Each structure stands twice: as C-alpha cells, then as structure tokens.
Amino acid sequence: MKTIKILGIFTALILLSSCEEYLDINHDPRFPTTATAEVLMPPLFWEMTRGEVFDSRYFGMYTQNWHRTSPRYWGDLHGYLPGSDAAGEKWRQHYWAIGTNIDLITDDAEASKKWWYVGAAKAIRAWSWQSSTDVYGEMIFKQAWEPGRYIFDYDNQAEIYDEVVRLCNESLDYLNKNDETNTLIIGDLVYGGDADKWKKFVYATLARNAHHISNKSSYDPNKVIEYVDKSFASNEDNFNVPFAATSSADANFYGSKRGNLGVYRQSEFAISLVDGTVFSGVVDPRLAEMFQASPDGIFRGLTAAVGDTSSGDQDIPPFYGKYVYQDDVVHPLITFWELQFMKAEAALIKGDKPLALTAYNNGIEAHMDFVGINQVDKDAYMASAAVAQTPDVLALSDIMLQKYISLHAIGILETWVDLRRYDYDPAVYTGFTLPDPLYGDNGGKPVYRARPRYNSEYKWNVDALEKIGGTSVDFHTTKPWYLQP
C-alpha cells in the first residue's frame, strides 16, 4: 500500500531562500536548496486530511455524528470556544499547510514541463478553497499570500466560488496535456500518477461547487448531474489518503494510536438511522460494522449536550477498532457514493425521479461495498422497507438520510453543508432535534459557519473582521452567501 511518511515532512515543506554569495561557495550538494514537486506533493495529502478531521471533531457535534462525554459542551450546543483555535484547522490548512506550497509545486513543474503536477496542484487548491469557504463563508482571497502584508481584507464568497471554477478549468487544461515526464507517479500517493483520476477529482469539486448553491435561483441541477457523470465512476476513483500506522505520527486520525476521539461517543441520532428506529424497523447491516455495541449487545448513543451517563453493561465504548476508526485504513475525502447522492438530489429537484432513484441506489450500494457488507445482506437491505423501491415513493428525506449514513465520520463537512442547506429541518432529517437551549450567544439560532482561526484573525486582523461582522458574538449563526436564496 502506498503510505505517507511523516518524518521530515515539515522540512520538505519549507522553501529555502537563496543564500548570499559568500555562502554559495560553501554549497553542499547533499542538501538541496530547492524542493521539487515530487518532494512537496506527498505532505499535502496528509495536510488535507488533517484540516478536515481535526475540525470534524467539532462539526461532528453540530451534525450529531457524535457527542462529547461531558455535558453541555460548546460544540454540542452549536457554539464556539472564544479565544481558541478550535474549529480553525481548515483555516490553517488552507492558508499555511497547503498555502504557497502549491505555488512552489507549480513553479517547479512548469519549469520542468511536468504538466500533470501543475494540474494536480491546482486541483488541490480548488478543493481547498471550496471545502474551506463552505466552512467559513467570506475569506481572504485577493490579498492571500501577498508578501509583506500583515492585515488582509476579506472577499465575498461568490468570488471564491468563481475562483474554484477557474482553478478547476486550469487544472483540466494541464491534466489534458501530454506529460512526457511521467513524474506524477513519484509523489502521487492517492492516484499513483493517473491523470484521468485527477480529472475525475476535479469534476467532483465542480459538482460540489455547483450543488452547494441549491438554495439560489441560479442553481442548475443539470450542471450538477453533468459534473457527477464526468467524475467518479466507482469506489475505485475515491480520493483515499493512505496511512502507514507505524506510529501515532503516520496513523489514521481516527485510530487508537492518535486517540483523537477518546472523549467522543456515537450519537443517538446516528444510531437511530441504522437500528430500525427511523427506517420501519429494518436493522441496517452496517450497524454492527460501523458502530460499537454496549457490553449487553445493544447499540446506544448519546443525546446532544447531555453527556455520557452510561455505565456497566450499558456503557457506550469508544469508536476504535472498526470501520474508519483503525490506524492503518484509508481516509476518503471525496467518494463515489457522495457524488451519487448529490446526483440523486439534483435529479429529484429537476423532477427526474427515475434518474434520482438509480443514483440513490448506487449511493447506498457503493457505501455498503466500502463498509464490507456481503452480497446477501446487501440485497436484503436494498429490497427492504428501509429503501425506496419505486421512483414515485422516493422522497428527499430518503436521499439525505442515506447520504448522512454514508458520510458518517468521513464526510462530516459535506454533511454539515447539507444540514445547513435545509436549515436542520427534521422533515428532511427524520428525528434530528437541535439542543435546547442552544449556546448562550446564539440568540436561539443554530450554527451556520465557523469563525476564522483565532490566532491569526482575532489577534492580528480584527479591523477586517469587523467589516464582515466577525466580531459579533453571534457571527457563527449568520448564513454565508452560498446558503442564502
């Protein structure tokens, strides 16, 4: 298996400046002063997962994938932690960890005619803009990475959405070039240098970009369907980041070696979708493969903000040991099933229920394959009352609930986009109940965005934040542009 080696990553990420002339005469050829695309690319995959998973711990409470064991924790209440970088990891990932390393890759690759590296780098930056702005709303765009600047103005989100499209189109142009160097295979830990798979990844980002504005009159379901059809064709195309798990440093973020989820437990809402509570008494075969049973064999979950009061035979164990909660399993960032559910929703909005049903079925089956459900159990579930059997009975809630199940833990940011697009509506998300009361600063409103990273923005860039309302105590409850009509 392709692996990520963490040791030495941060030194590889540093651009070593040119030396003064008097130092040039002492140049040691064993220590290069420039980094090539092949060296710079592998650490970015690790940073992509770090940004998503570290913050998913908090956003997963908003979406009720899991809850904290302590009662009335700010995340369970749809709040934020003042004076903290909690939920600011995506910000760090975008501006620093990925940041100008993309420029270093493209500079080296363009000079050496390694066209596919340029395409992959632009694809990563487009993905990073998209996934980050969906979390934070307005971001620093025009002045980002401008040398010598210490305060930065925020730009509106529509411009960032346009930038994602521009970068994706540029990426496709480079990936369609004839790259005679064939060097992408060296540093590409995800797709092994396969430019066609990178093109599919680009179209997956375009599909998100086009679909997340579903509340707007400009939304075009046909464009979403087109992008999905040009994207992943099966689970073989999933953007899976691998981990070696030789130590906590290179292990999966959800595994026991890192221990990042020790104070979290599965939620009652998540369990209700697979134990038969919501879906007509049908027990989902994914239940035992994805979640942990109490010592008495019953699957239980925590309620938002209540904390863990279980004990003895009814104790809820930690996640570790199964599904994506293992040290050496891959972490998918975009998957075939996510795109199929996206297509199903777009087709339903369009009014094409037969197409919606096909994509909906594809999404369920693909996720079951990923989980490892055997064919007999999969067939039984697909024929059960838990699954819409005809186009006429297929409803929005069928699609969104199955998408929710399939994105448990590995697609929390996308799940949060969906919940916010539908205003946490229990008519869409059957059984979903907001905590009552919500966080004290919320004014009775649920969360709709994360605040920018504290130590860069609230310490050094407050004037710019004030212009977008970022210093208001309820800023996190205001809807970003893409969620508005």
What do these coordinates show?
The chain has helices at 9-13, 21-24, 37-62, 89-98, 101-111, 115-136, 157-175, 184-187, 195-211, 221-230, 268-272, 287-290, 336-350, 353-371, 375-382, 396-406, 412-421, 454-460, 462-467; strands spanning 66-68, 240-241, 264-266, 331-332. It is an all-alpha fold. Helix 5 runs antiparallel to helix 6 (115-136), helix 6 (115-136) runs antiparallel to helix 7 (157-175) and helix 7 (157-175) packs antiparallel against helix 9. It is globular.
How is this fold's topology laid out?
Blueprint: H1 9-13, H2 21-24, H3 37-62, E1 66-68, H4 89-98, H5 101-111, H6 115-136, H7 157-175, H8 184-187, H9 195-211, H10 221-230, E2 240-241, E3 264-266, H11 268-272, H12 287-290, E4 331-332, H13 336-350, H14 353-371, H15 375-382, H16 396-406, H17 412-421, H18 454-460, H19 462-467
Antiparallel strand pairs: 1-3, 2-4
